[in-house]
Amino acid sequence: TCELQQTLRHALPGAIVELLDVPGLGAKRVKALHDALHVDSLEQLRAEAKSGHVRALPGFGAKTEAHLLDAIDERLQREPQRFLLPDAAQSLRPMLERMRQVAGVGEAVPAGSFRRCRETVGDLDILVSAQDAAAVADAFVSCGDVARVLANGKTRSSVMLGNGLQVDLRVVDADAFGAALVYFTGSKAHNIALRRIAQAGGLKINEYGVFRGDERIAGATEASVYEAIGLRWVPPELREGRGEIDASRAGTLPALVERKHLHGDLHAHTDASAGRDSLRAMADAARARGLAYLAITDRMPDAGGGRTDCDWLVRQIDEIDRLNASFDDFVLLKGVEAGIREDGSLDVPDDVLGRLDLVVGAVRDGFDLPGDRQTERILRAIDHPYFTILAHPTGRLLGERDACELDVPRVLAAAAARRCFVELDGDPRRLDLPDLWCREAAKVGVAVAIGSDARCADDLDNLGYGIGHARRGWLTRHDVLNTRTLAQLRPLLARTMGGAGSASGASKRDRPKGA
Ligand code: DGT
Ligand code: CA
Ligand code: CA
Asked: Cα–Cα distance between 110 and 92 in angstroms, integer?
């Protein structure tokens, strides 16, 4: 977000931007529709088209009108759109700020899937504790981005923002805040399990508290609610009904990895390839974020015809050496994002790979290969003696491309055997390795490298999204590669990087998992 973006956004009426997604409508036509018919949402356009008002406009006609109706119906019937985390966060922030300014408001926090750090959210849920619910609701429905008010009751309201994101608000008393937060954080599966446990103990649990008969025995805090039914507080990221209740009862919940545990970042681009910022700027940004190391992993330019031009990489290696000489508390690691060809070979020659600290391998094409071929391709790449980290392993792009067909357990087994690593790419469009597979990786002893995949300095904050997703995957500090200090990391990287005997596998070191 920036001031200009906010100004422009507020200058646009209602949900008019969603009209631009309709095939056949550009800015000019949307403006014409708005000027003539005051249309500023899909539903309004549909109503006007149905009543024949659109065909009467200059440049539209009956055929266009019918076409628009079809396109709108197709859009409205489509699976409801889910939103990426940064988009949801950007809408959420100003709303929370607004409500926190209302007199008498205690807490104003996100709940639902956003709080659980799910990779996408269907809608946003906000929970506020306050005595004057009406004042909070008034502030809520008059937030800048609100295009439509869907419901405005005393304690619950819903709005639709201009970008199509729905936001639900719930206002509760402070003494029920914890119970309401548990309830509206979900997930539904987690809530159902909680209710069952309460019932088995002769208690009742709902969004107002935990009750024995008519007596409320807990509700002000989340911890009190869990404790009242014999459980320990469960981190929101685990509340998916995937074994967290049993672990809570048994006292075996994992100590989840946190952002402050990360000592470095193992995947970043500069203006030498996909990125926008210089080496120097990336290093400064990493240092400003308290990191001790940053791996630079640019990719080969497409030279065409299978040619490889590595001059740029050799120059970058030298430049990194020069820069590193100027730091005393920080190191740029020399890396590359090597493309994995369909035959499993890497698109960077071995003599260059041998000069690097790490090699991040990535599939960048052929996502639709059949599962066995995709798996073979990756197994072969992992077998390369210089291979270090498998980047964004499933290739999914949230909302755009499904994970490719891949035998993930086989890949993890191979990575464990070769003592290399898999990435959890923190780019909020990827969050790949997906959470369930992260859990599997930890189980089979493959450390997960959380990478920002930064395209610019600010993208280093992707590490935060990576951490959220890693927590959904039950990962602890010890399951994550870049919680190691540089001194601890070096020998782990060295095992693949042409250290004596590494190609024979004879001198492979033990990876100090859990150390
Ligand atoms: P989303 O919005 O699709 O990304 O996912 P959630 O989990 O945010 O779902 P949402 O917004 O429908 O509801 C928020 C939370 O409220 C949900 O995680 C649990 C609670 N909740 C909603 N409906 C029910 C229900 O019918 N039963 C129970 N036990 N809890 C519910
Ligand atoms: Ca939600
Ligand atoms: Ca909701």
From this structure: 8
- Asked whether residue 24 carries a pLDDT value surpassing 90, the answer given is no
From 125, 194, 245, 472, the mutation candidate for ligand 1 (largest count of ligand atoms within 8 A of CB) is 125
Residue of minimum CA distance from atom 25 in ligand 1:
188
Can you tell me the distance from the alpha carbon of 184 to that of 112, in angstroms, rounded to the nearest whole number? Answer: 6
At 496, the pLDDT band (50, 70, 90 cuts) reads low
Top mutation candidate among 118, 165, 190, 191 for ligand 1, by most atoms within 8 Å of CB: 191
Residue nearest to atom 23 of ligand 1 (CA): 188
pLDDT value at position 304? 60
Nearest-CA residue for ligand 1 atom 16 is 184
C-alpha 82 to ligand 1 mean position (Å): 14
| Per-residue pLDDT tens digits for 99-111 | 999 999 999 999 9
Q: How confident is the model at residue 306 (pLDDT cuts 50, 70, 90)?
A: low
What pLDDT was estimated at residue 365? 95
122 lines ligand 1 (CB under 6 A): yes
By the 10 Å C-beta count (0-12 exposed, 13-18 middle, 19+ buried), 461 is classed as middle
Cα–Cα distance measured from residue 508 to residue 504, given in angstroms and rounded to the nearest whole number? 9
Q: What is the pTM of this model?
A: 0.86
Counting ligand 1 atoms within 8 A of each CB, the residue from 82, 168, 184, 188 with the most, and so the one to mutate, is 188
Euclidean distance between CA atoms 490 and 415, whole angstroms? 18
% residues pLDDT > 70 (the chain): 95
> Which atom belonging to ligand 1 lies closest to the Cα atom of 125?
11
Residue 499 in this model has a pLDDT that exceeds 70: no
Residues 223-247 as b/e (b if ≥16 CB within 10 A, e otherwise) read: ebbbebbebebbbbbbbbbbebbeb
Alpha-carbon torsion 170, 172, 174, 177, what sign?
negative
Which residue intervals of 59-211 are DSSP H helices? 61-77, 85-100, 112-115, 133-141, 177-185, 188-200
Q: How many residues appear in the chain?
A: 515
Task: Quote the ligand 1 centre to 206 CA distance (angstroms).
Answer: 13
